[in-house]
Amino acid sequence: MNRQNTSRENYQTYVWFRQAAERGDAYAQFNLGLMYKKGDCIERDYVHAFKWLRQAALQGLAFAQNHLGALYYNGRGVCRSDVEAAYWFRHAAEQGDPSAQQNLGQMYKKGRGLEQSHELALAWFYRAAEQGSPSAQTLLAECYLTGHGAPVNYPLAMAWFRKAAVQGDAPAQLALGLMYKRGQGVDASDSQALCWFRQAAAQGNAAAQRQLGIAYAEGAGVRTDALRALAWLQRAAEQGDRDAQFSLGVMLANGQGVDKDEARALSWYLRAAEQQHVMAQYNLGSMYANGRGVARDELRALEWYRRAAEQGAPNAQFNLGVIYATGQGVPRDEAKAARWYRIAAEQGDASAQNNLGVMYANGQGLPQDDAMAVFWYAQAAEQGHALAQYNLGGMYGSGRGVPRDAVRSYMWMLLAAEAGDETAGANKSIVARRLTPTEIGCALDMSRQWQLSHQAAAGPVSNRPATD
Prior knowledge:
By secondary structure, this protein is mainly alpha-helical.
């Protein structure tokens, strides 16, 4: 059948539906409305779609009621109204239409047009899932996975994800892969995770493509292959997946199995950063600050650090503190420096805690306060920050903010020197001359006990630039 004949037949179908619809046939009204909604054989026209779907819906046709609800939900052919959308979804759902049941569940889940209720959302998802709807099965599984509407139940989540996944639902396949990767309700299995990621990725699911890329990069369930990792990450990144864009930037910036290309890395960081990826924003700031992949630009570095800092990134907050403390591209402002150090310090950033201690000790940007200096030095020192340990030792040695304690001073000097602080290494012998052999032995015991109690912690904390 050639295209001309097909076009004639389609137009004739439209004519038949139109004639029957005008005589009041609900099915014809529905089909005519659907043709207008999809632009099938005729020009798409949401106003006419709304008119005919409404007439069919008023006659009780569930399919039409669901589509009418969708028009109200999206504001197509009629003013947007969540209340009307929920009204029509409910009419269709109560007649057993699975799509409407799923849509009504979504309205309850989001609290749109109805009072939010995860329990009722789950109930409607269940009714649609029982009818075999893969998308409803996925939504139901998510409820059991997250504990929305019911207690967390990994076996039930996995069972419903699997039902949807075997029907080809890509989000369910991705979710199954993640459950195997994380060991949620099953023994962790990278190979099983990879199997489901592949199926979802083949359907174009960007998140699954990213997971495949990560698996190839890390050798999780498959032999490490940097080129395949790059290819899958790029597929996901080109679809706008910001995490893939960031990961691609990291690979290119560091030359992880591929040729190092900081200019390309910068372009991917930029795309992720514009989607509010906080670490991409931070890395962009770092690249502009250091002239990596782009000309050095202190103002752009400041802009990207600020955007990351405002999203809560402590490393960006610390860097903003350094910029204001030293006047890098901006007027020096110790009050702003102290403010950003405090924000990062309160999130546990050891370098910010140390620098905030310095500012309290010197009265820079805030009132001088030795006790507060000791407090913040101690917070950083307990995390293994070598410079903070040295500074804390100095406070004990001089009796600033704490009672003078030569033994404790030497203890912190020892720890700082062992952590790599050169000044502490040079000065500890001077401190030792003021101590008796018994006191030195006591300090050594205290330092060993501290190290033993902190062995389970992460490795040594990097010492970023201080303000003095």
